[in-house]
Amino acid sequence: MDNQDCIGLVIEVPNIGRGQIRYIGSVETKKGTFVGINLFAGNGKNDGTFRGRRYFETSFPQSGLFIQWEKIANLIPIPSNPEANMTIPPASPTPVRINANFLGYHEPLQNSFPEIKSRTSISNVIQPNDDPMQTTSSDLKMLQTELVQYKRLVEDQRIVFEEIQAAIDEYETKLDTTEKEKVLLQNQLDHERTSHQRQKQFYESEHDQLLTVIDELQSEINRNAAILAEIMQKEKKNSLENDYVMQDEPNSDALLINDLREQILELQQHKTQAELHRVQWEKEKEQLQFRNQSLSKNYKNLTTEMTEYQQKSHDTETKEYTLNKELDDARKKIGELESRVEELSKKQEENTLIVDSNIETLPLYNPGAEVKSTLVNAAAGRSLWCALCEKDGHESVDCPYDDKFF
């Protein structure tokens, strides 16, 4: 068998694991023929690139491995049908994790599924041909492979759905917290508004009363001033004529003047206090207005944040609904594939019975079993042994001989 015919075969590398041959040929700056293997477990040493040149594609960034042809030549089986061992490598040995930031997930589930074979292929499976057992067996393997891929994709979607569900729960928790804060601030704002309204009414009433008192005091001052001026004028006018009267009653008008002066001073003090109360009321009014504006601004910000959380929650629910629908469709397709596999299994059993009844059963030649029986695990019974350089002290993955294994 030609070396290039081995590309695509799945082999088991001792102490490393299973992988698929992706490249056979020379490697720059290296002597000899090397085999590029894509390891299913992702425990390789490169991504199919060596010294800036890409030789083959890998499933993971560190799943590529170059090994000399002589080291794995005896590991390659020689099948009677070259396509028998051409297996499709799993897309991922472990479910692929996607960030809990599910907002970046846009690829629908239907686009991730491989295309199902056409109706012509299925009809060819059902129609009899020269070798019904072989056709049924190959179609059964094909459907089983598709079924495994569907199950893997459904498992990946389930993991994505669980991570999205955790994000949804987090958003719901934040939304509930925001709702509680909004209700608390709304109650606080209503309480402040009610208190502000009561204080405003109280200060307005007190202000009106003070204005009334000031007006009354001003009227009283004006009236007393007019009386005092009239008395002074009369006193000045009649000072010469009524000297004897003033001499008889010197203290009468003096007492009246003193009383009027005391009343004027008292009214002026009341006026000063009223002015002080008015200034204090203006300051408290400005403070209440400032607090009202601050509460209104906080309420507006919380309303905006709550609207954003509600929008995000709505988007999350929409994506969750889409994922549920896609998962249901995938489960239906899996059910259909399982039904087809069961039908093909029954068909294969019927064909087997028919062949057994018509021809004599002979022992089948199993080249894979013979090759496998000739393979000897050289690492058996040793703790640390490299199957590539055939030396003790290290395993194959950590082989330091870069010329033969890198």
Automatic annotation (TrEMBL):
InterPro entries from the xrefs? CAP-Gly_dom_sf, CAP-Gly_domain
GO BP, one example? nuclear migration involved in conjugation with cellular fusion
Q: Coiled coil located at which positions?
A: 154-347
This protein's GO cellular component annotations are: cell tip; microtubule associated complex; spindle; spindle pole body
User: What positions does the domain CAP-Gly occupy?
Assistant: 25-68
Lineage top rank: taxon: Eukaryota
Cited SUPFAM superfamilies: Cap-Gly domain (SSF74924)
Q: Which UniProt keywords apply?
A: Coiled coil
Q: Which Gene3D superfamilies match?
A: CAP Gly-rich-like domain (2.30.30.190)
Q: What is this protein called?
A: Nuclear fusion protein
Originating organism: Kluyveromyces lactis
